[in-house]
Specification:
This protein is an alpha/beta fold. Helices cover 29% and strands 26% of the residues. It has 10 helices and 11 strands. Helix 2 runs parallel beside helix 3. The two termini are 26 Å apart.
Length: 317
């Protein structure tokens, strides 16, 4: 899921390469590292299937005489993002184009490590380090059955499953933010809440309209919560203002946006930002990946990346 987002790194609204708005230093460094590593990669790799692992880390650079050494966090580079295994068909606009070239040309079973040129982040000289290893590579057409979504079915592309990568991303993001409390709107049977409790979050709140799902979530969390953790499960309408979850550090709206009826969609901004969280995490199916076909008949909508970016920007204003 994170690699899908990498395709948009450094792109401006017109699709060109710009400085980026979210983490401009890391974006420029990533593009620089990819350009260095992918320069000699083969040009024709459309349809090639690769299984790969990767990590992105920031290494701080400290001068010692004429030598420079990595100091990082705990004497090691700080890992920004890591994926242990991803299976993907190249040429399907899933990865950043430069990352596709790198995956197409990397030797099998040998990690490729490349670093960007030196940049500065909050006054500290550093570089971005990309480590990528290709485990398998098969030239030719996409795997059989991958045409269900225009050759990009998540069943065949994502390994581990997309839902697992999404859950890992949510937990990792909360850990990196330092959040100590979170509310999951539309929590269902509590899968995300369970992961947050196991990650040690001191306070978690789940909200769902279904009494049955709230009961299932409560039963799930009772098995994993520690005595010092505060867990609150509420049967309530997540789109209606409710002071019981105001002031949380983080708010999660995962795979809910696509189910909100059109008549209630204008209330979504207030639902997400009304409680004034320091961090809001919203996930929803990517319409760019589905070629216009809804993934499930109960979806009201599926936004493209541009539509989602516009909604988020307008909500933030």
């Amino acid at each position: 899921a994170a690699l899908v987002a990498l395709r948009g790194l450094g792109e401006d609204d017109d699709g060109g390469v710009g400085a980026g708005r979210h983490h401009p230093v890391l974006q420029r460094a990533l593009l620089d590292a990819l350009a260095r590593a992918a320069a000699s990669a083969p040009g024709d790799f459309d349809g090639t299937t690769v299984s790969l692992s990767y990590s992105l880390s920031v290494a701080s650079l400290q001068a010692s005489g004429e030598e420079r050494r990595d100091v990082g966090v705990g004497a090691a580079p700080f890992v920004v993002e890591e994926c242990k295994k991803l299976k993907v068909v190249l040429g399907r606009q899933i990865l950043h184009p430069a990352l596709e070239r790198l995956a197409a040309g990397a030797p099998l079973g040998l990690p490729v490590v490349t670093s960007s040129s030196e940049c500065e982040f909050e006054g500290i000289p550093c570089c971005l380090r990309l480590t990528l290893e290709v485990h398998e590579r098969t030239a030719g057409a996409a795997p059989a059955g991958a045409s269900a979504l225009g050759g990009r079915s998540a069943r065949h592309v994502f390994d581990p499953p997309l839902r697992s990568q999404r859950l890992d991303f949510i937990v990792w993001t909360l850990r990196m933010s330092g959040a100590r409390s979170a509310v999951d709107l539309g929590c269902g049977e509590g899968q995300i809440l369970e992961a947050l409790v196991l990650a040690g979050l001191p306070r978690v709140i789940g909200v769902d309209t279904s009494e049955k799902r709230v009961a299932a979530a409560r039963q799930r969390l009772e098995k994993v919560r520690r005595p010092e953790q505060e867990v609150l499960l509420l049967q309530a309408d997540a789109l209606r203002p409710d002071g019981r979850w105001s002031g949380v550090d983080a708010l999660i709206l995962s795979e809910v946006l696509e189910h909100v009826p059109s008549t209630d969609f204008p209330q979504l901004t207030e639902a997400v930002l009304g409680p004034k969280p320091r961090l809001a995490i919203v996930t929803t199916p990517n319409a760019d990946f589905g070629h216009g076909a809804l993934r499930h008949p109960d979806h009201e909508r599926e936004l493209t990346r541009a539509e989602f970016r516009q909604w988020a920007a307008e909500a933030a204003e």
